[in-house]
Amino acid sequence: xxxxxxxxxxxxxxxxxxxxxxxxxxxxxxxxxxxxxxxxxxxxxxxxxxxxxxxxxxxxxxxxxxxxxxxxxxxxxxxxxx
Amino acid sequence: xxxxxxxxxxxxxxxxxxxxxxxxxxxxxxxxxxxxxxxxxxxxxxxxxxxxxxxxxxxxxxxxxxxxxxxxxxxxxxxxxxxxxxxxxxxxxxxxxxxxxxxxxxxxxxxxxxxxxxxxxxxxxxxxxxxxxxxxxxxxxxxxxxxxxxxxxxxxxxxxxxxxxxxxxxxxxxxxxxxxxxxxxxxxxxxxxxxxxxxxxxxxxxxxxxxxxxxxxxxxxxxxxxxxxxxxxxxxxxxxxxxxxxxxxxxxxxxxxxxxxxxxxxxxxxxxxxxxxxxxxxxxxxxxxxxxxxxxxxxxxxxxxxxxxxxxxxxxxxxxxxxxxxxxxxxxxxxxxxxxxxxxxxxxxxxxxxxxxxxxxxxxxxxxxxxxxxxxxxxxxxxxxxxxxxxxxxxxxxxxxxxxxxxxxxxxxxxxxxxxxxxxxxxxxxxxxxxxxxxxxxxxxxxxxxx
Lengths: 82, 451
Prior knowledge:
The structure holds two protein chains of two kinds.
Chain A: E1 8-9, E2 14-16, E3 23-26, H1 28-38, H2 43-53, H3 58-74
Chain B: E1 11-13, E2 33-34, E3 37-38, H1 39-46, E4 50-54, H2 55-70, E5 76-81, H3 88-97, E6 100-103, H4 106-114, E7 122-124, H5 131-139, E8 143-146, H6 149-158, E9 167-173, E10 187-188, H7 193-204, E11 208-213, H8 224-243, E12 250-252, H9 270-273, H10 277-290, E13 300-303, H11 307-310, E14 314-325, E15 331-335, E16 352-354, E17 363-368, E18 377-384, E19 392-395, H12 402-405, E20 415-419, E21 425-429, H13 434-438
Helix pairs in contact in B: 2-3, 2-10, 8-10
């Protein structure tokens, strides 16, 4: 799952989609994930990085990652495949 | 190295448009304890879900309601509405405070007797009193509120079997300006049916007419209706005194005062829109005092309040089972209590608080119960911080009707705990068991499981 390349993100969690005009605000973790995703890291790498740095269990992170993907999809921020 | 604090990733779409005059703050605060007892320990000790009642709040509500009326009128009596919550411990709190009992069935009547309420302090309302119910009420000299002519005739027949004169009141329905009219209980005022019934009671010489009663509605949001109802009952009482030379001892205004819950579809929260008990007291008592009764013949004022005295003293504690996203991306949270034990979620937008600290972001979500039924929706739309499975929640203002109208369905009904004024929890109704629910069942021999 890749984030759309034209999405603009800021370090403090503001997200803008120039194609639709939609804007979003996210919390610190959302900002962190977006920057990591834009840098080209895989989901596996991003999750490993979070488990190393943050106080969270693997199960919880896995659940939240799935929910995060649904949020991005619903917000139309993910690259459509094919 | 100490790890950084984690929070769920969360994005929220920003909408440009009209500012919301109420602001964006949800006001959600964690509720970690009730009357000094932690939510965590209550769930650990009594299971989840669990109903919790605050004795302190019940007594506070009763005393403030009693004060509102008794400081304005010399003769006031409350009668606890059993159907609102007839757990014996709850009834005893009200009886200790001085409440009589107001019952609407033989089942409730016998509960009141079992709670030690003297027969002459039990008010027997309701349209469905059986022959046995009426007999026991006559034997105990209770106040029988007559609902229809069948019941009146039945009582007249029964008087042959007793030496004491049954004490009765006429239940009156009327137009109070609130629609739809509650005209299914009692005798109508406007078409003079109430006067006919009242005259028949007095003319019979076999029944003692002591009171006039009305119950004009439920969750009444206007005090004016009570002013109209009081005037109409006073009219009847005065007419009775002048034309039939019979003095009415009491006027019973029933219940119907609202709690501060927010009704579904209401624009503003209940806290901001519901008249206070003082507002109702002012209208009722000033109407009585100004009506023109001689001071020595002022009728006693009886009130049968239920909801307003206990709703905010009740909490339902529960646990989050799971989260999911609906087809439109909306968050749904599934909790371990359903509409079968929280009947009032059909009427109210119950306030729900997390019982632990949470992240500052909140999200609009739907709260579902665990029943495998589409109607099992606790809140259709509520802003709460995202909750994790295992997190605990507190539902507020659930003390009225839920513990009497709850339904056993696919699971067992939970325990009820009362926290006393010294902050000690007491189990007042144990969790149901499979054996308890199966005890009345019988299996014909040919259907018994073969060993």
